[in-house]
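Exercise 7. Given the components listed, write out the predicted structure of the assembled complex. Treat all entries as one system.
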Amino acid sequence: MIRKRIIPTLLLKKDLLVKTINFKNDIYIGDPLNTIKIFNDLEVDELIILDISIDYKKKIEINYDYLRLIASECFMPLSYGGGISNIVDAERIFRLGFEKIIINSHGLLNKNLINELVKKFGSQAIIISIDVKKTIFGKYKIYIHGGQKKINIPLFDWIKEIENIGVGEVFITNIDKEGTWSGFDFELIKQISDILSVPIIAHGGCGSIDDIKKVFDYSNASAAAVGSMFVFQKKEMGVLINFLTTNEVERIFRIIS
Amino acid sequence: MIVIIDLDLGNLYSIQNMLKKIGFGSIISNKLEDINNASKLILPGIGAFDTGMKNLKKYNLINILENQVIRKKKPILGICLGMQMMLERSEEGIEPGLGWIKGEVIKFKKDKTFRVPHMGWNTVKIKEKVTLTNKMKNGFKFYFVHSYFPKLKQNNYEVMKTFYGCEFTSCFQKKNISGVQFHPEKSHKYGIKLLTNFAQLND
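Answer.
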């Protein structure tokens, strides 16, 4: 029986590993390659790498040479997001040894891109990332360009549309939760995972093992993406690359199943 | 030298990386002479069935592979789409498969519990003890990413099976032809074991 996935999610700025709070105020964590070697030894389920230094105008290019080094250290599934705007970018990333690519802004700006990517590389290789904020009226608004620009496509229209195109997974982040250790946006994850039949990766706000347990218990999420908790000792404490112990993983899954 | 067949369908360096880690040299190529000189072949692939078959045709590989695999009995391992292409056809597309293994590739049924694609770590049951499964046990975990799975006509070629809403063949072997639905190159020490077994076949 398949087990839900717990995925360390690492943020790059070129060849530096950083961690943000609400998509801002990034703190330097360390050397990505060393970190990835540690996660490899800890036999983590999967890794997500997001380069947040690439802006939508692509003044900074995708760092292919460095991504190649990362992929060569990984004997687990690996996804990359950041600045992928066309088929050629996607193809280069796959060739380096990444299984999946993550598309956010460029998918919303060019819906045909997602269509083409799914056709060429198959559903399973394409993750759509959606960043949202909740308004004071309790509605979710989608943001692109690293949380900087609000767009007027209703969230639930968009998720239905990408499901129809046939994407493989949806990576959903509440920007106001990201980096806060205050728990996932459980309601949001539940709503989306109840509607969609593709796997949902919950992201933003995980601060404890109980949060992971709760997101799997409460919603139909297929995976929990975790940033801060796996790179810091505790909230507002020093860097410590870590993953759940086998006992902790068992505790999460025994209770759900 | 192991040749990893290049069909422009991703995931090649990760296989090469893992082979290198376990001490086996490999090259990534779609050239006739490399394939002819190879000790073993790996047919990888992620993506759509028709794209895979079209790329095999585009590089004129169908006859070359048939000569090496069917006539010369060179060991070959299909991974994911590479495995699926060894069957006769797929529900995913209209192109015929290589047809080395009788059967077809079918899609998982949509289900809220068993979401499609089947993506993540799942366990295998070892059905047949063969060289490929040497020192492997029931419950070994592998990483899967797929929406379609192989349905063999002859069950005796099934070596491992996996449950995801239904039981399906996650590894088959028919003499020199073997295939895995999962990604050994992304499956930590379990994948290392499997690729080591493959690399040591006939040695």
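Discussion: The first strand of chain B starts at residue 2 and ends at 5. Chain B is about 25% helix and 30% strand.
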